[in-house]
Amino acid sequence: MEGRSYNSLLLLFSLLFLLTFSTVTEAYSTAKLRPSDCKPKCTYRCSATSHKKPCMFFCLKCCSKCLCVPPGTYGNKQVCPCYNNWKTQQGGPKCP
Question: What global pTM score does this model have?
Fold first, then answer.
């Protein structure tokens, strides 16, 4: 009986640990930027393009609306659904 209580207690603590860890991970992955974080994120995002001014203009516009900028200098837009799904009138991507 004593071994069963120990196993139940261990299972309970393991479940609580996993639940806490998954909540922290989810909160981190969906964390929103502050508006003040947009300029440095967009500066890096646009660093590899030869069209820096338009890239920065649209990146800052998208960041201020979505509070998210994908990692890297290109691609990875699936990380920021709002940023990824905002389209121009012609249906092309609005955000760089």
Answer: 0.67
